[in-house]
From TrEMBL:
InterPro entries, alphabetized: YdhG-like
Pfam families: DUF1801
Organism: Actinomadura rudentiformis
Domain YdhG-like: 47-138
Superkingdom to which the source organism belongs: Bacteria
Record's protein name: DUF1801 domain-containing protein
Listed Low complexity bias regions: 10-21
Sequence segments annotated as region (Disordered): 1-32
């Protein structure tokens, strides 16, 4: 059941939420569209999005950011994307493009070769030390070019 903030975003003048609760944000390169996506994340998800973005930027200060396919991507410019996340109704999905090469491997399998996920629900605590370790590892691996 959506909370009041989720409902307010759907009926307000802000970005439209797609089915599953993912904000519809126009494609764009750089920090501005990523921050627009994070601001449009419904309810508790926005503060988690801010934290994820902060941790990635703190770990990889020259990270290249873009919003495409209605989600933020992080990568090394010219070398593809190593991390992305998106909203679903009950969780935020953290996506590691070379996840099968990370140690330890993120828990959720993908149908996409090499990709692994971590789903964060409202009551979950982000293991920031593990997340930063994954980001450090991931940014050294070849990224996805799509």
């Amino acid at each position: 059941m959506p909370n009041k903030k989720d409902t307010a975003k759907k009926s307000g003048s802000g970005p439209k939420l797609l089915s599953g609760g993912n904000p519809q944000i126009p494609k764009g390169e750089g920090d501005k569209p990523v921050q627009a996506y994070i601001a449009a994340m419904p309810g508790w998800k926005s503060s988690v999005g801010k934290r994820l973005d902060h941790l990635v930027v703190s770990t990889v200060p020259d990270v290249h950011k873009v919003v495409k396919w209605n989600q933020p991507f992080y990568g090394n410019e010219g070398d593809g994307w190593f991390f992305a996340f998106r909203c679903y109704t009950e969780y935020i999905q953290l996506q590691f493009s070379s996840g099968t090469s990370l140690d330890p491997v993120p828990p959720k399998e993908s149908k996409h070769e090499g990709m692994r996920y971590l789903n964060l629900r409202e009551d979950d605590e982000l293991d920031e030390k593990q997340f930063v370790s994954w980001i450090k590892q991931a940014q050294k691996l070849p990224g996805r070019k799509d």
